Amino acid sequence: MEQYNVTGMSCAACSTRVEKAVNAVPGVTACAVSLLTNSMGVEGTASAAEIIAAVEKAGYGASRRGVEERVSASDAAAALEDHETPRLKKRLIASVGFLVVLMYFSMGHSMWGFPLPAWFEGNHVALGLVQLLLAAIVMVINQKFFISGFKGLVRRSPNMDTLVALGSLASLVWSVYVLFALTGAQAHGNMAAVEKYRMDFYLESAAMILTLITVGKMLEARSKGRTTDALKGLMRLAPQTAVLERNGAEVTVSVDQVQKGDVFVVRPGESIPVDGRVLSGSSAVNEAALTGESIPVDKSEGDPVSAATINQSGFLRCEATRVGEDTTLSQIIRLVSDAAATKAPIAKIADKVAGVFVPVVIAIAAVTTVVWLLVGQSFGYALARGISVLVISCPCALGLATPVAVMVGNGLGAKNGILFKTAASLEETGRMQIVVLDKTGTITGGEPRVTDILPGGDVSETELLSLAAALEQRSEHPLAKAVMEKQAALSLPLREVTDFQALPGNGLSARLDGASLRGGNLAFISRHAAVSSALRRQAEELAENGKTPLFFARDEKLLGIIAVADVIKEEAPQAVRELQNMGIKVVMLTGDNERTARAIGAQAGVDTVIAGVLPDGKEAVIRRLQELGKVTMVGDGINDAPALTRADIGIAIGAGTDVAIDAADVVLMNSRLTDVPAAIRLSRATLRNIRENLFWAFIYNIIGIPLAAGVWIPVFGWTLNPMFGALAMSLSSFCVVTNALRLNLFRLHDASRDRRAKKEVVLPPDLGGIPTNETTIKEDKPMFETIVNVDGMMCPMCEKHVNEAIEKAFAPESVSSSHKEKLTRIVSKEALDPEKVKAVIAEAGYTPTGVRSQVSR
């Protein structure tokens, strides 16, 4: 989407006309104009020159935003600064100064008896001329209303400024007529006519209308400026300089001069200038600016660091990996800015009304004036009713109702590590009825961890773990890594073994201090040591709970069992409960075997578990769930891309520095599962705020226009002075923007006020019966199935390793492995070279013993 700056817009009618003009350009497929940020996003093949020409023809100005303007933190921050409020403040001060003097002459003397210079006594013409001069000065000060308003009228695209200009100009023209009539009456000594005309001046109304509208504009501009506070606060965190190492010396340069591959240093208390990788040093880094997580993250050699995060403790020497527009910070700025330039579907009704609002109001004002003349009222009275209609009508409130809430909601989300790519995704996320969670990396941590240590006989837990670590230290198996991490966490001594052997499909063996050590599965250990029935039962229970039991023996004596599993995240059960309390059904979707999946699903508390689903099958499951209701898919954004794309809303979790995941509508920078209900909660709050804004914008005009027109005068005697109409108009937009700013007080992670959805779906009992090996085959072309016998796979993590190796090497339609059957099945569009398949599996650390291929459909 190409971004443009748009100038000259003053209300929703303006943004609607710009949008209509650009959409009419051949080649434009989509256009969204934001009155809040005075920006426009355009998709399609039309050239920038054609688009700018269309905007200018509609009576407005446009310029294309450069890439650097979109993403540079300093430029973007400057663009978001509130430049309008200071200008309006100057106008307001000048207007009020002359208005006070005008009100003194027009109302202070006649109503409250304020003294006037002697030469004004009885000279009503001179008094009228002074009022005319003061009113004209106020009109010149606020000439922008007239220039914009009448320019729009000439181009047959009237806007809010047109209403203000017509109202104040009508007051001026009528007052000039009255002044001439007063001059004639005074010249002829007709004092009765003089008294009548003296009360028909509306010069103070003309000036007051302009001043009050300027008050409203200033309050509105100030409030609009605050809607981007969260984003501007993030931009201000970006450092302006970086300290680079060049020719053995440290050199301070502008952050814009940092190139990829440069080496920079960061001292305690300093901000990290660009994204990079730690070359040396260690420290705790506060990443709250990007992720909203207040707890510092430990960084050491090889770890990534991001721009705008703060080095809190140690000295870091880093290599720049992403600079300029590619940094995480710049990507966040781009996402939030692009989202602000899009429109939420709920805004369409306001856009339709705004498109015809001003012409309709002008027609109502004209009809109102004529009707009051026909019923016998004076021209001055009828004109006052018409002017009231013009100045009380406010299309701005309609136009701002949605974008201000979207901007505040997006800013609040970004502040907490939740990024909505479009206004539509911000609106739709809260309407979801089913949340589908991928297991690995979403519900679980994605890495195996030691969960249970069960020593046998007189062996202690410490001794069992120490011996197991000694045996596993030379293994590259993922389960060995889990044992080593546990040993390191407990700071146990690590002893060296000799004669180490890895026995594919069985386990490990080595010698330590003259004794033989063995570790592996039950079948392998049972050949070398006696396993009691009690330990066998414990191993079965562990397996039932989705854990992999590892047996260890020394010199034909069983040492015990260490259970390893991809454990669920600590916050997963809480996140699932929060979703369920919102009336949302939670489904866990995984390619793991059913027993493991059921165990994990039970721990997390999900409503339904669907296991054994291949990557292509996940997309089919989402498609079927969509028949029941709106579906959100939560995954890592890479392996789950088809399912994320198919879902109504795709949420990529744990994106970290990679926020530009194409398949996702919402990006969660953290791996916290509780951010999923937080995103839904924020979406619902934003949508509720939009509805409130639209309600008040519509109800204000529905009540205000009939009141101004005098509909209630015959019934209740209610009339509305044009000055009060202008005051009401000026406050309407301010109230809408202020209501949107209340979102800044919203607590995303507070589940105490969650409400259940009005319409909840019911998951059918046969949902788990969705075919687990469904593969999408286009045009019924033949597919090739390659079946490989593989030794060395001992657990689901082994299966994952083999699958990832095959996917990376061949990009097949699907791949699935079973450590129990010792088989890997690969479905591809073309026949695979058996030798290459075996080489890939062997390189992954496993032993292929046979390959056969067949054609399938």
General description of the model:
This protein is elongated. The strands form six sheets. The protein has a seven-stranded mixed β-sheet with strand order 14-26-25-24-15-22-23, with helices on both faces. A six-stranded antiparallel β-sheet has the order 6-5-7-13-8-11, with no helix packed on it. Strands 16-21-20-19-18-17 form a six-stranded antiparallel β-sheet. Helix 7 (143-154) packs across helix 8, helix 8 packs antiparallel against helix 15 (379-392) and helix 14 (348-374) packs antiparallel against helix 15 (379-392). It is an alpha+beta fold and 857 residues long. 49% of the residues lie in helices and 19% in strands.
Explain the layout of strands and helices.
Elements: E1 2-7, H1 12-23, E2 28-34, E3 39-44, H2 48-57, E4 61-64, H3 67-71, H4 73-80, H5 84-112, H6 124-141, H7 143-154, H8 160-187, H9 191-198, H10 203-227, H11 229-236, E5 241-246, E6 249-254, E7 263-266, E8 275-280, E9 283-286, H12 288-291, E10 297-299, E11 304-305, E12 310-311, E13 316-322, H13 328-340, H14 348-374, H15 379-392, H16 395-415, E14 418-420, H17 423-429, E15 434-438, H18 439-443, E16 449-455, H19 461-472, H20 478-489, E17 498-503, E18 507-512, E19 515-520, H21 522-526, H22 533-544, E20 548-554, E21 557-565, H23 572-581, E22 585-589, H24 594-604, E23 608-610, H25 615-625, E24 631-635, H26 641-646, E25 649-652, E26 666-668, H27 675-709, H28 713-716, H29 722-741, E27 783-791, H30 796-810, E28 814-818, E29 823-828, H31 834-843, E30 847-856
Parallel strand pairs: 15-22, 15-24, 22-23, 24-25, 25-26
Antiparallel strand pairs: 1-3, 1-4, 2-3, 5-6, 5-7, 7-13, 8-11, 8-13, 9-10, 9-12, 14-26, 16-21, 17-18, 18-19, 19-20, 20-21, 27-29, 27-30, 28-29
Helix pairs in contact: 1-14, 4-11, 5-6, 5-10, 6-8, 6-10, 7-8, 8-9, 8-10, 8-15, 10-29, 11-16, 13-16, 14-15, 14-16, 15-27, 15-29, 16-27, 16-29, 17-27, 19-20, 27-29
